[in-house]
Design goal:
By secondary structure, the chain is of the alpha/beta class. It has eight helices and seven strands. α2 (44-53) links the parallel β2 (34-39) and β3.
Length: 247
Amino acid sequence: MHDAANAGRNVIVTGGSRGLGLGIACRLAASGFNVIAIARQHSEALAAAETELKDRLHFRSADLMDTTALSDLVRGLRRDFGPIYGIVNNAGIGTSGVLATMPDAAIERLIRLNVTSPIMLTKHAIRSMMAVGAGRVVMISSVVATTGYSGLSVYSATKASLLGFSRSLAREVGALGITVNVVAPGFVDTEMTRELDDSHRAQIARRSALRRMPEVADVAGAVDYLFSSAGRNVTGTVLTVDAGNTA
């Protein structure tokens, strides 16, 4: 629901051209925020959403693996749109593989995009929030950060690191009116989980308290809540959206 109080508040959503990131970007734009979707490439789905949401959803191309360019990226966004009110660090890769045989380059790539990049991007974006004394930071983690999952040891490590980062940052910036939280989705129907066959999906659903898998809209709704006035006193915590898979 569009909230007039959010008008003019700029929010960055990384990985915003498809899947979970696009769902989050659209939900926040529908709530009245001015959303800047960051991704390497534009997409047809994002173009359609931009048309529907008119002037509240925008695209900017960036390679988040290039951490040396993140300062200039945020500076450019501030120049084009104004102060940054919030950031959703959603971009990431879910490369799977047994640790003993995973190439070193693949490990380093996972850590750079899933850990180093969101931390550094938040560093630059949060300075704008500190200047105005208000803001929201949301990190998209995963239930495997705490449950573990065979073949995802490095991915799990990157997602777990976001928990400690967010809890500590919440204490650093809380007095300035900025909240920092984590949303931990379960296995959601996105491109990252398309490699799971039907029997595997059914098994995950059976193990969940609600006997189903969460959808993109469920995770987007959780992020929207943390950005809303209702979530103003929620910080330093993890909101799990997994249909009760880890219950």
